[in-house]
Amino acid sequence: MTPEIHAIAVDLDGTLLNSEHILTPRCEAALRAAMARGVRVIFATGKTATSGLALARRLGLDTPGVYSQGLILADIDGTIRYQRVLDPEAARIVTTYAEGHGYPIVAYSGMRILAES
User: Fold this and answer.
1) What digits encode the pLDDT tens for the residues 23-72?
2) Bridge partners for 40 per DSSP
3) Separation between Cα atoms, residue 103 and residue 114, nearest integer Å
4) CB 101 within 8 A of CB 93
5) How far lies 63's CA from each of 30, 42, 86, in Å?
6) Closest CA to 69 of 86, 89, 57
7) What backbone phi and psi angles, to 5 degrees, belong to 89?
8) For residues 80 and 78, what is the distance between their CA atoms, to the nearest angstrom?
9) Where are the beta strands (DSSP E) in the chain?
């Protein structure tokens, strides 16, 4: 007997999206077929909420998603339900060390990714 599926959590890059970061018609059809059967689709991705939410809205999802490598749980309207943040003093120490040793810095800040240019 096959168990009933209530929800699926899916990664975006390299899983749902192809190497060109495009949702193929086949993947979209599969998601829509699952949703038509009452399966809830949840995004779980390293992408920022901003980029993931655009696709979630296009698909008509109503589920929160997990974004930024698990640092943010956001509703479809962008409301942040949960956010894991680094202690400001720890962030200062890491940033100072990285800058002092010539390491590039990439940081998540709410709905954005920050990087030196």
Assistant:
1) 999 999 999 999 999 999 999 998 888 888 999 999 999 999 999 888 89
2) 7
3) 14
4) no
5) 17, 6, 26
6) 86
7) -70, -40
8) 6
9) 7-10, 40-43, 65-67, 72-74, 80-83, 106-109, 112-115
Residue 117, CA atoms < 13 Å, CB-side half-sphere:
2
Q: Are 56 and 33 in contact (CB under 8 A)?
A: no
**Cα 74 vs. chain centroid, distance in angstroms?**
9
Residues 6+ apart with CB under 8 A from 7: 39, 40, 41, 42, 63
Which residue, chain included where needed, has tokens 């956010």? 83
Alpha-carbon distance of 114 to 73, in angstroms, equals 19
